[in-house]
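Course exercise 7: structure representation. Students receive a sequence record and must write out the corresponding structure in token form. The form below is the worked example handed out in class, using Benzoate transporter (401 residues). Read each field label carefully; the graders check that inputs and outputs are placed in the correct fields and that the protein name is recorded exactly as given.

STUDENT ID: A-19
EXERCISE PROTEIN: Benzoate transporter
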Amino acid sequence: MLKSVTMGHLSAGFTAVMIGYASAAVIVIQAASALGASEAQIESWLMTLGLIMGLSSIGLSWWFKTPILTAWSTPSAVLLVGVGSQYDIHTAIAAFMLVGIATILTGYIKPLCKAVENIPSPLASAMLAAILLPFCLTAFEVVEVAPSYFALLFCCFCLAKLWLPKLTMFILLGGSLVLAIVVGAFDQTDFSISFGAFEFMPPNLDASNLTAILNLAVPLYLVTMLSQNLPGLALLQTYGYRSPTKSALVTTGALNFLTAPFGGFSLNLAAISAAVCMNEDVDTSKTQRYKAAMCAGVFYLIAGLFASSVVSLFLALPKSITSILAGFALLGTLLLCLQNAFSDPKSRDAALLTLLISFSGVSLFGINSIMLGLMVGLIYSNLQKHRLKPELKTEGSEKLG
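STUDENT ANSWER:
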């Protein structure tokens, strides 16, 4: 097995992991911080995530001989940053566990999986865009408090995006570190190279807390399924692989449930970074590309073990710089969401309602704005379909006449 691992497998696996960490580790840290997590708890989050992503990627890829890469859900982390102040970490842990159970059930119950798949893509994209938008706007608000930081990193981002688009986040992260060190804003007292450690965070399972748990769990589940798992399964099919839907959902859901008290806030199929392990550059033989995902799993394990160093690196950076990193990392995803949300003229009104209500932050009868936006969008979309059906029948009758 080891003898047949090539540099193509190793480089693809390393690149896939670096894409995830360079573009989203700071967002995961901010998500945990928004829930009131201590530095030790944040380390536990990243250690747990690194280990379960590594083990699941290695296990699933080896068992099915398919490049199955797992990851944390960046959109879910963004959601937590946005609403985290409304919940304590113990309520959030209970919500993470519930999402794990729901994911397992989705793998076993086909009608439930179909119901999620039948949510119109434009509405799902509009909901996700509403979650991402505040994050992206925050990056530009830095210009008021640290204009020099913003100007330099914005130029760095634009130049990299134009000439080296595949390396944009690596260049931006490197530029951020250099800038922080040069201006003396890098707090070296917080940076150290050491192993991470687990910390148990008990869930709040009180019946009186059920509404809060559901308000957080349902959007997390939908965002993870619609923006990560379904695209991840579709990506496998695009590259000609059989999608082991049930096994993938049950495995990731079970690990999510079991590790939630240690910081496993989400585990799902990777979407964008997984493509790095599936193309012809990895291996000319399609049957051997699973080794790239297994290599990625090994790099995940290493990142998990050194979670303390990852956390201290990002905490040593000024908050203004981490805000820019997080916001710029999500601009591409935001653009794709907006394009998908408004590409079909028939669904634009429903998508717009979903976007605006989800973005507004309003709540009604204990239902938060994200769920409310999706519900209104679905109701409007269904009413629109029923209104159009009689018109289509009339047109058909006229043609026959």
